[in-house]
Amino acid sequence: MRVYSSTVILLFLFLLDASSQSQTETHRVQYSDWQRDLIQWRAQHAAELQTPDGWLALVGLEWLQPGDNSFGSAPDNKIHLPASAPEHLGVLHLAGTTVTIKSPPGGFPDGLLIDGKPAGPRSLPTGTDSDKDNPRLRVGSLEMYVIKRGDRYGLRIKDSNSAALTGFHRLNWFEPDSRYRVTARWIPYDPPRSTMLATLIGTHYSQPVPGAAEFTLGGKRYRLEPVIEDPAEAKLFFIIRDTTSKSSTYGACRFLYTGYPDKGLKQAGKLLLDFNRLENPPCAYTTFATCPLPPSGNRLPIPIPAGEKRYHD
Question: Directed axis angle between helix 6-20 and helix 33-49, to 10°?
Fold first, then answer.
């Protein structure tokens, strides 16, 4: 059973209260199913950010150099961990496209686990499309894993006692607005295409583009292209920027995840785009994330005042 923090519970109660309050003392607003689902989704989104291994726990990203990269809290390490970590935790060895972990002088410290087992010398493979299966190193409140971005390898460091977690404040949202729930026309690409996505750290990577979603707002027609972030999930991933990025929303982009179109990816059909579910990317909460930037066609020349606002002023 997942245990939520008191902050999450208060946020959820706040959202539920907001959904039930009327603009007068004697009447209550009757919310539709999609609005109630949206309120629940927003509370869940905040809860996921606050998990011990969520984005608010991210406290470091250290790029590996060829050869040995010692890591721990002692000053003589190449990679410095928070003071709560052992002085010498291990050595990450980068040779070409292979990363291995070796013990420091004196052996691995007690309490260091790799995927739940006592640490020992081994390789640390990295996924090409996702980091979710990369081996996890855990000691105390820290979780670490090796990531690959372009031709670079780095150590991602998370701390369940991070200041961002302990100092979390509520997320900021636009009010639900049905005008920004649109049914788009799905245009499949045959054969599927690909796009090269740039990231905030200057790397690039290719992602498959199965088609385009064409929709109308304010009497004008627009088109957005999603990518397939994880082939194992039936989700489309839209990376979007609109003109609110200059004032009220995160400047780089926002994300929108949807299901597949009603007739699948390979046939023309319909796709619901609910911009009320636009969410901030991880880089809106931490400087150590490596977020993708929107492709040129997904940079809309109009404001979409829906979804999540800026987290920081």
Answer: 160
Q: Based on the number of CB atoms within 10 Å of its own CB, is 126 exposed (0-12), middle (13-18) or buried (19 or more)? A: buried
pLDDT tens, 184-241? 999 999 999 999 999 998 989 999 999 999 999 999 999 999 999 988 899 999 999 9
Rounded CA-CA distance 127/275 in Å is: 30
Structure confidence by residue, pLDDT tens digits, 141-164:
999 999 999 889 999 999 999 999
Which tokens hold the place of 304?
A: 């979409």
Name the percent of the chain in helix, strand, coil, to the closest 5.
20, 35, 45
Residues ≥6 apart with Cβ < 8 Å to 206: 194, 195, 196, 197
Could you tell me whether strands 236-240 and 90-95 are parallel, antiparallel, or unpaired per DSSP bridges?
unpaired
Beta strands (DSSP E) in 218-308 are 220-224, 236-240, 254-258, 269-274
Q: What does pTM read for this prediction?
A: 0.85
Cβ proximity of 195 and 272 under 8 Å = no
Q: Is 79 helix (H, G, I), strand (E, B) or coil?
A: strand
The bridge status of strand 152-159 relative to strand 181-198 is unpaired
DSSP state of 293: P
User: What tokens does 198 get?
Assistant: 């740039």
Asked whether the beta carbons of 265 and 273 are under 8 A apart, the reply is no
d(Cα 29, Cα 24) in Å, to the nearest integer? 9
Angstrom CA distances, 23 to 27, 28, 307, stand at 7, 8, 22
- Spatial separation of the C-alpha atoms in residues 116 and 238, rounded to whole Å: 34
Given a contact cutoff of 8 angstroms between Cβ atoms, the answer to whether 154 and 144 are in contact is: no
Q: Quote the CA–CA distance of 311 and 251 in Å, as a whole number.
A: 11
Go through the chain and tell me how many residues it has.
313
